[in-house]
Design brief:
Length: 122
């Protein structure tokens, strides 16, 4: 799942449905800053030694959804645009390159277009 800014609001519902179907789910979440991420998604975030959230929202943790965050200003997660940090996320989550993987995205049109190009290459 790839979500930018307000697009993050739709991801809990989709993540739950995919997990109920038995799919492995990774959420890559991007925003300009921590303040622009939905509070309920980042409340209580615990950051690991690599700057990645090891716990992000009780909801995603309980579902077993892996979460990686990027903020343009570096206030939480990887610093930089989600589209620019995709290589870091891909290295961290090998399942993103597995044959048969499906990408769902929600967010600004620019993000969706860029991620469609990236997903096709992966």
């Amino acid at each position: 799942l790839l979500a930018g800014g307000i697009g993050a609001a739709t991801m809990p519902f989709l993540a739950r449905e995919l997990r109920n179907q038995g799919s492995e789910v990774v959420l890559l979440l991007g925003a300009k800053s921590r303040e622009l991420l939905p509070v309920n998604l980042i409340d209580g975030v615990v950051i690991d030694s690599e700057g990645e959230p090891s716990l992000c929202c009780e909801f995603f943790s309980e579902l077993g959804v892996k979460v990686s965050i990027s903020t343009d200003d570096g206030s939480v997660g990887r610093p930089g645009l989600l589209s620019a940090t995709r290589g870091d996320h891909r290295a961290r989550h090998k399942e993103l390159s597995q044959p048969g993987s499906v990408v769902y995205t929600c967010g600004p049109e620019v993000l969706r277009a860029k991620m469609a190009q990236v997903a096709e290459r992966w």
